């Protein structure tokens, strides 16, 4: 049965290929000759045929699989197989055997070719049976504004049933019309369509139309631009709020561990940033293990990295407390100097072990990319970090309030001798509390490895900000840290568009200095006897 | 683990070198000392450690060939720790205590400015391997990296001609190199007829990590209906979060290309480059250049570092060129005396790694080809444009009002780093 089928298939291919291979073959062959400009010309000719048989060829060109066989100049698809490459015919998909990697030369593409490729693919795949492909095709045509695609677009529109795809095609058609020499009435209708779309891409097209069209088109386009801009300005404010929240959550993550070691225990830990860095390097190591042993499960690596980073940073924290800090309780200046020295030592240790260059920490697929929410662009990575920051905050709050360990911590920090008299092993609690703070810093490291570079200097960038948040929020108060982080994040992001990143930072610092002058104990000051202790 | 082994081996090697130097003073007289002034700790260690290694490799190679003037070369490595005043101190130590014949070092412009008076006072030789903002020419310094006209201006020309870019975002880190480069570019663009509303300039602090709204601003700036590009002089660590944010917000190279002057193979090693395919960089060297010299260099480098994944980059090539120029000039002069070398090095020409020759010009800058490359998925660059000939480094930019009349020529009888062709006098800016 199997054999019969494959025979049949082979026969079919044999019959079917010459029909189109005859016209396409020389065009495909031309892709592999000469410079970028030559390839581009060949591609344009290939796209002009409108023959969907060319789609796999163009796709292979896009992914960089299309090669020229040096021996005879034939254009082939070459994919890695063992030590060499497996060759297939780009049009028929028929296997052409294996070859050495040096026997073929890749057809290189540059940005302008990449644009032409997506335009060509867009025009050719408008009639694809898959609605998602049709949607992508429509979006590609929207971007390319290729006048030649108009005919294909109209044919596709007539047959389209899916509402979403239809709208995308309609917008693509509007973009093409604005780019063409269509009569003004058509263009005005197109402007209205784009006005309804109302995003940045539409704005770009409208701006172009306003600059080039006739007087009537120009007037309509300008009205449309004003309305789109107004809408975008509203969304812009919301976007700023989101950026503020997102920066705030990063600050919260970095500062929350410090809120435990500095806020609750009163230890000025200059090596806090290095705990964050250790967490990030733990993530890197976990990902390396996943890359080597289970590349298929890579998306889970971040989740596995969380406990690993917590334990790694926590263990280093406990070791630091036992070896250095416990001898220095009540001597803030010495603690500051000792932990600062430690921070330099840890940085150099990591630099010697992992090298001074950045390490690559990949993003799992569920943390890459972005989605549109109305006029907002929200990146998944940032969204998860915001969620994660609040989860860590809630978990820490529960741990301190509701668990026996939390009770011990609070007892020891409020009245050490009384706690000791009640049978609490205060030295052990000290070590574990410091370990907890450091472990949370390690968790922050996992999150920061997604947005910052994993290098020995990672922690340095966050130590100042962390102290600022804790001091501003009020030492010893977790809620203060939360409010402080979010407030500083938002203020920073609202200042940035007006003042620029550098001046914005300076203004925030000045604001904090003034604020601390007025309220030395921060936003949420602890009251009562604990303050004097 | 492999890495620890390597650094241990390197440390042991250094210790041996040092021991040999101390134990046998008689043999020490038969060596020529070469100073290496690169940060091995602190923020710049990420870039500079590699350059220290490449110098050690070049010196080892030269010693295998019999050294220079019949003497072995002896590297003297010091660590200025990314601390600018310490650079000056260490430079003084190299010149007075170790009496090195030449120093190869510095990365940031501020470190170069900090050692400059020391080299001029003690009449030492410094080979500076990094692209910089120009506006300087010293008798004692040889600039083997690119001047703005060997990197920034050809890159902008490429975008304007090949990509049809009409609107420009000049984004940089807030310090002297980006500010000067952007000033030059702004004047240059305006001289090409670009209006001021089509230029957006943005500065961020060192190590900036939250790029969300700046990237969003770029997107907004790019939606004015004209082709837009970003010219990035963002330096060091801030690049990684910047490119990550570009990838996340879906800014593709086809729509808004970013051309960078400080991002090379080494920097890309820490990023997932899939979303960045097609973004550009302008350099005078790429690892992907297909020449026999380059293949040989990469092989030696990977053997030397015992790591077949180590990448090479532009400043490494600059040291390769600079070191070979110095060797040739010393052999021509027959001595390592700085004055003799300064006289003999002008006009010396050595092969570069991109299939041509680089020559030392009278202004102490060198000739180089300019390459524009696009980022590939494997973290390498694919050359998409190469200047047909070599470009001579122009120390005083023609696009800044107070430096366009200045030239530098260190040959006798002019022997001046800032000769004003209008007034016919030596002196002016930078004196």
Kindly describe this structure.
The complex is a heterodimer of chains A (533) and B (431). Chain A is of the alpha+beta class and 533 residues long. Helices cover 70% and strands 6% of the residues of chain A. Chain A contains 19 helices and seven strands. Chain A is globular and about 95 Å long. With 431 residues, chain B is an alpha/beta fold. Chain B has two domains: 14-146 and 290-367, 3-Layer(aba) Sandwich (Rossmann fold), CATH 3.40.50.2300; 149-288 and 372-392, Rossmann fold, CATH 3.40.50.2300. Chain B has 13 helices and 19 strands. In chain B, the strands form five sheets. Chain B has a seven-stranded mixed beta sheet, with helices on both faces. In chain B, helix 10 (265-268) links the parallel strand 9 and strand 10. In chain B, helix 12 (314-333) packs across helix 13. The radius of gyration of chain B is 22 Å and the shape is globular. The termini of chain B are far apart.
